[in-house]
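Project outcomes to date are best conveyed with an example. Our students and postdoctoral researchers have been running inverse folding experiments weekly, and each run begins with a structure described purely in tokens. The record below, which covers 228 residues, was selected by the lab manager from last quarter's runs and is presented without edits.
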């Protein structure tokens, strides 16, 4: 009798917030997880099920290394493009937005996820999930969120087209909603964000996408019904 391979995931931006919470949940579910973040010291997980590969997703050499690690593990069942760059804090109006910074935001939030999919496509098993973490700023015109929102809107569209072009995968854009994270605090410097929910509250919705049969598409975590 042939044993089933251990499911394998890659989660970017896993040092904190939603990426870290999801990684811990996947490990608890029996997954093997490859994680990345820019600072090696933030990628400590007390389990052999996690393989840490420090680096910047905007760097082509780092993406190649992630693909090499995934190849050594035998393939990939889940890719979560969670790493994101907020941009300036506080968020500037578009007429004041420094274009060199916007270029960096677009590189991290749009080009890097696509480049990572290109790099990993040979290792994505049939039926594998690709989850791109989006934002309500992608679909709502909010004062001060033009740069970040434009990057997430572009990511949403790339996600939708990828779903059409790669029908053997399930490809999702997910708006997690407001969360009590370091990035959200950066977006509202000096404000009290303690009323926002912890990232762990979003994890069940992502688990539902990973284990369920919903078609490719864009979803709000708050709208996902997770079976008990």
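After processing, the design step wrote out the following sequence:
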């Amino acid at each position: 009798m042939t044993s089933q391979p251990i499911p394998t995931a890659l989660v970017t931006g896993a040092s904190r917030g939603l990426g870290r919470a999801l990684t811990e949940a996947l490990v608890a579910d029996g997954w093997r997880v490859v994680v990345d973040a820019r600072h090696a010291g933030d990628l400590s997980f007390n389990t052999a099920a996690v393989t840490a590969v420090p680096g910047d997703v905007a760097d082509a050499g780092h993406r190649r290394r992630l693909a090499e690690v995934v190849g050594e593990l035998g393939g990939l069942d889940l890719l979560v493009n969670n790493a994101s760059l907020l941009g300036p804090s506080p968020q500037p109006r578009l007429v004041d937005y420094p274009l060199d910074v916007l270029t960096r935001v677009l590189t991290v939030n749009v080009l890097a996820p696509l480049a990572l999919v290109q790099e990993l496509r040979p290792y994505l098993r049939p039926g594998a999930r690709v989850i791109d973490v989006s934002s309500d700023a992608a679909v709502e015109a909010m004062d001060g969120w033009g740069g970040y929102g434009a990057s997430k809107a572009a990511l949403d569209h790339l996600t939708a087209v990828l779903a059409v072009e790669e029908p053997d995968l399930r490809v999702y854009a997910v708006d997690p909603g407001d969360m009590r994270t370091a990035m959200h605090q950066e977006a509202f410097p000096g404000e009290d964000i303690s009323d926002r929910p912890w990232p762990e509250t979003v994890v069940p919705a992502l688990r539902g996408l990973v284990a369920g049969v919903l078609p490719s598409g864009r979803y709000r975590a708050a709208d996902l019904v997770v079976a008990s």
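The chain has one domain: 8-223. The beta strands are 8-11, 32-35, 50-52, 76-81, 124-133, 170-175, 217-220. The training component of this project remains on track.
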